[in-house]
Amino acid sequence: MKDMNSAQNNVSDLLKLARKFNSFYLSGLHQGICKPFIVAGHQVGLVRPDVLKYLQRFPEVFRIAGKYVELNPAFRDYKERTTRVADVLQKLRKENEICALKGWRDECFEVSTAFYQESLLEMDRSAICLFGIRNYGVSVTGYLNHPSKGLCIWLQQRSFTKQTWPGKWDCFVSGGLAVGFGILETTIKEAAEEASVEGELVKKLVPAGCVSFYFESERGLFPNTEYVYDLELPLDFVPQNADGEVESFELLTAEECIQRALSPQFKTTSAPVLIDFLIRRGYINPENEPNYRYLVELLHVPLQSIYNWPFTHMVAAAAVNGDDQGIYDDN
Amino acid sequence: MKDMNSAQNNVSDLLKLARKFNSFYLSGLHQGICKPFIVAGHQVGLVRPDVLKYLQRFPEVFRIAGKYVELNPAFRDYKERTTRVADVLQKLRKENEICALKGWRDECFEVSTAFYQESLLEMDRSAICLFGIRNYGVSVTGYLNHPSKGLCIWLQQRSFTKQTWPGKWDCFVSGGLAVGFGILETTIKEAAEEASVEGELVKKLVPAGCVSFYFESERGLFPNTEYVYDLELPLDFVPQNADGEVESFELLTAEECIQRALSPQFKTTSAPVLIDFLIRRGYINPENEPNYRYLVELLHVPLQSIYNWPFTHMVAAAAVNGDDQGIYDDN
Question: Any stretches that span the bilayer, and where are they (chains A, B) (predicted)?
Fold first, then answer.
């Protein structure tokens, strides 16, 4: 049977980019290398070997049994799980060896089951990539239909002092969904802080779906879902940053945006939002993009079910059956 | 480990509908029951046992070897594969036993590899569901922003003489991608034939992505990808059918559309286009739909890679290794 990568002709630049921000998804989740992370009977993530070696030092918190890493099931509730995990992370943070923890945020993300969104614990935002926990955020595309240039989009350059992707080009406005904040609420908050979008303009925010992709970097695993919002801006609007996290803003044509997204100056994990917007607006379309349907697929990889079906379900079955030749084996 | 279906609370009506049009996807592709269909070394589909029993009678065309059904690899090219398969289908059609073939169309769909869209053969449209061949079509949502009713959408009722889904409510305009027709070309052709969209109005068609889902019915397997187009219509536009395939048209508010889509009067496999449109327009949004992100996921299931990774890739490896305990086994 031919390998899916055997014929490399006809691969567009956008598809190459979509493969890049899905580096972990397209690796087959490093089948056999990472261990499922289980909390209260639910798989909520994956742990890489480089992280596992740190967790092994805390057997009272993380049980590493065969093919799994399990948060001690004796922890009774959300609060106890949160505290016990935070203790370990603070110890590791002080040792200053794990790159991701150098960006400690003092802002927690929720760890929950995918389908019914049952909250299991919360964890500092910087740490969730160590466990491959699903990460939710919001992104706003600020755009306008320019009388002579056509579709134009405001991009932001991230501050050079940011812990992640400093100085890179990014969407107009974006932010993570921290514990206690709603989706629209976060969008409105971030739009005000990052770009001074306020008053009547806020009412023009239009939710338009979400993009999901699974990226991996040296720092960790990023199964990201971004709720996307569109915001048509007046021709004379100029975004002003209010929280010091933005270096500058620039208004680009759609074509310039694509070129920027394809360049190394763009935050890889923000490209899906931009590509999705340009697809929804018809700028990228079946007539000009040979890999259109596969591109759309790679903007919506099945993160909500990736830890339940089909892989882990079968692994669970194999484990229950005492089958040591489970499908996560590399041989 | 808890089953993903154990907690049935908080499941919205729209999620129930999304599960319905993904009945085959969510069954885990009937793991162990259907056999991969291989053409020229590529898996292009799946064959159910009820179809397999007919194919077994034609061993010179379909080789049923272990876990696979393979089109005879001695067939040299597109033309020979097409002719040999058509011969079998015509014989079966004459026997008048297979429900799907009663709707013979004299219109061929292409059978191709997913990623690089290499054409392998063509097959009558009515037969592709027997082999689980990926099916591509176009759909247009004709809408308007009504001064008093807000977002409104034109729906069509299918003719009672149609072979499939007679009399059911459907999108404004839709059609399958037949051999030799482009995507935009098909959209324009269908918009003219089904609803008399012509002239300047055609230029307002906006491509806006695609939806993918995997439905199963008694007739067969439907891994469908629909290229979606939006068309804003003038307030005074009234669609007129020109090809006799439409019973009537009706203009509904967004809320009425949702109710119609949830009713048994709606063509199940057209609901994804409508839901996707209402999500992209912000009518269905994270604040009013509790299963929003999972709903978006079920509008974009990974059909382009479903026959290659992860299942079949591993099955192929198991077959190569002579491993009889492959993952398709039910035990």
Answer: none
Contacts of B309 in chain A (CB under 8 A): 4, 28
Structure tokens at B27: 């069954």
Give pLDDT < 50 ranges for chain A. 1-8, 309-331
Single out the residue of B264, B259, B192, B270 nearest to residue B231, CA to CA: B192
Domain co-membership, A196 together with A233: yes
Nearest to A62 by CA among A84, A31, A32, A34: A84
- Is there a contact between A122 and A179 (Cβ–Cβ < 8 Å)? yes
| Neighboring chain A residues of B279 at a CB cutoff of 8 Å | 207-209
Do residue B117 and residue B169 come from a single domain? no
Give the span between the Cα atoms of A23 and A218, in whole angstroms. Answer: 12
Which residue from B9, B116, B287 is facing A116, i.e. has the nearest CB?
A: B9
> CA A178, CA A181: separation in Å to the nearest integer?
6
Chain A nearest C-alpha distance from B292 (Å)? 8
Q: What is the DSSP string of B48-77?
A: -HHHHHHHTT-TTTEEEETTEEEE-TT--S
Q: Which residues, including other chains, have CB under 8 Å from residue B67's CB and lie 6 or more apart?
A: B35, B36, B315, B319, B326, B328
The pLDDT value recorded for residue A10 is: 67
Spans of chain B below 70 pLDDT: 1-10, 309-331
- Residues spanned by the domain of A101: 33-132
Q: Are residues A100 and A212 in the same domain?
A: no
Buried b (16+ CB within 10 A) or exposed e, B162-183: bebeeebbbbbbbbbbbeebeb
Please identify among residues 15-54 of chain A the ones whose CB lies closer than 8 Å to any CB of chain B: 28, 31, 38, 41-43
Tell me how close the Cα of A88 comes to any Cα of chain B, in angstroms.
Answer: 25
Residues from chain B contacting residue A276 (CB–CB below 8 Å): 209
Could you give the number of structural domains in chain A?
A: 2
Residue B97 to chain A, least CA–CA distance (Å): 33
Q: Report the pLDDT value the prediction gives residue B7, as an integer from 0 to 100.
A: 40
Closest residue on chain B to A207 (Cα): B282
A106, A142: one domain: no
Contact B305 A4 (CB under 8 A): yes
* CATH number for position A75: 3.30.750.160
B2, A327: Cβ pair inside 8 Å? no
CA gap B154, B141 in Å, rounded: 7
Q: What is the DSSP pairing of strand B150-158 with strand B246-253?
A: antiparallel
pLDDT of B10 reads: 67
Query: Does B116 contact A303 at a Cβ distance shorter than 8 Å?
Result: no
For position A67, what pLDDT does the model report?
Answer: 87
